[in-house]
Amino acid sequence: MSTERPEHQGNDTAGDRSARRAVTIFPVLVLLAGAIGLLLPGSFTGWGESVPYLLGVVMFCMGITMTPQDFRGVARRPWAVALGLVAHYVIMPGLGWAIAHLLQLPPQLAAGVILVGCAPSGTASNVVTYLARGDVALSVSVATVSTLVAPLVTPPLTLLLAGEYLPVDTGSMVTDILKTVLLPVLAGLAVRLLAGRYVQRALPLLPWLSAVTIGVIVTVVVAGSADAIKSAALLVFVAVVLHNGLGLALGYGAGRLTRLGEPASRAMAFEVGMQNSGLAASLATAHFSPLAALPAAVFSVWHNVSGALAAAWLSRRGR
C-alpha cells in the first residue's frame, strides 16, 4: 500500500497521521474485500484482466511519494542499503521455497507462495517502520531500490525456485513488471518533480486511494479462486504466517548480526518481512492461475496486521 513517506521522526504531519490511519484500517478493508469476493464471486467474472492496471495505480501513487532525497539516501549509505536488498531477495524467496516443501503444498499454491517471496518490499513498510521508531530513511531506500530492480531479480528468482512446480516465462514476466511497476513508479516520480506544489496537497489522500485499489485487487483475486478457498484456506494461512513471521525475525536478526544498530534493524525487519503482495497477485493471476494468487491475497491482509502489531510492540519497547 502506497503511503506518504514520513521524512522526519519528530514531525507529525497531516500526511503522517493519514498514513497511520490507513495502515490501521487497511487490514479491515482488505478482509471486507476478500469477504465480498468469496460471497459474490460471480459478480467479478472477467475482472482478472484489470488487476495489472489496478496495480499500476498503486505503483503510480508510490512514485508520487518519492523525492530526490530518497535516492540521495541510497548514495549516503550504500552498504546498509545493499545489505537490506540482499537480505530481502535471499531470505524471503528462500523461505517461500522451504515452506512450500515443508508443507508439501500443491504446485499452484507452492508457486504462489514462492512468487510472494520473490516480490519487492511492501509499500507500507516505510510507515510501519516509522510507527516502530525504526530507521525510516533506510527503509525508504531499501524499498525504493528493491522496487526498481524487481524486473531484473523477481523473474529469474521465480524461475529458479518455482520452476519445479510450474512453467515460468521469465521474458513475459519481465515485461509485465516493467509495465505494472517500473513505468508507473517513474511516471509518478516525474509528476512529483514537475508539479510538486500541487501534488503536496493530494499526498494525504494517496494512502486511501492505494488501500481501496488493493482492496479491489484482493476482491478480484479471491473471487477467481472462491471454489478452492474452502479447502485450501487453512493451509495457505499457515504458509503465510510462517513466511511473514520468519521474514520479520530473520530481517531483524540480519540487522543485529551486521551491527547496523537497533533502529536500522527494525527497518530491516519490515523491509524483509513485508512484500509487495499486489504485484505477486497480479503476476500469479497472469502467469499461473487465480489459485496461485491466493497466497498473495492472504499475505496482503496478514502482513499489515502483523506489521502493525510488531510496530506497536517495538515502539513500546523503544520507550
TrEMBL record:
One of its GO terms (cellular component) is membrane. The keyword Membrane applies. It is a multi-pass membrane protein. The chain crosses the membrane at residues 21-44, 50-67, 79-103, 109-129, 136-157, 177-195, 202-226, 232-255. InterPro entries: BilAc:Na_symport/Acr3, Bilac:Na_transpt, Na+/solute_symporter_sf. Keywords: Membrane, Transmembrane, Transmembrane helix. Its main location: membrane. The keyword DNA-binding does not apply. PANTHER family: P3 PROTEIN-RELATED, SODIUM-BILE ACID COTRANSPORTER. This is Transporter. It comes from Streptomyces aurantiacus.
